[in-house]
Amino acid sequence: MTQLFPALRKFSIAIIGISALSNPDFSFGQTAGETVKDADGNRYHTVKIGNQLWLKENLKSQSFRNGDKILSMPISTDWSNFTKPAVSEKPKNGPYDAHYGRLYNWYTISDPRGLCPAGFHIPKRKDIEILLDELGRNKSKWSDKSIFSQGEAENLGGKLKAKSKLWLAPNSGSNNQSGFNALPAGYRARSIVDMGLSAWFWTSTEYDALNADGMVLSNESSGAKLTYHFKTNGFSVRCLKD
Q: Distance between CA atoms of 202 and 124, rounded to whole angstroms?
């Protein structure tokens, strides 16, 4: 678990067609009715959350937008010091579901060949903040210095998490009100861990030479966490409309 937060980390921070719950305070979760294909021909659905149009599924592509193949790293390989673009192979055994998509290191995220389908991009940290604001984030109580999830009172994570048995109990607050449909793919450091417990998403925002910003959702929290992580980690990717 040493590859998660470069700072303190005390605990594991840890469908398609889901419509928004009836709540007058929110106007998101509408199905946009658009399907998108990546460079490998995988199809994705979209969901409109506020003024943003997101893919509803984690990225599955094993190719850059120009068709170049991304290096696939076997599960048996320690990629914790690998600093070139790479995508993780899936475990051959166990509960790794097709809906989880692929796990990418940040060097794949920042590659100029582009990872998302045409017309979409990797969200910046600011894009995630806009998403959380749309879900009702209380900025006055938000602290990036906290090692714990934020926004539990507003159920920020619960509104993003899928109501799925793939999430292990308690899956706090999960109602997928936004339609984002986040699933617990876990993350990859030396190996893939936390499946069923957490969802980790990259942003394109670099924190420093070794780290980049990302968002974490946990089965144990109804909130969300924005913090920086080692670029060598393998996280899920959600693409945002240009």
A: 9
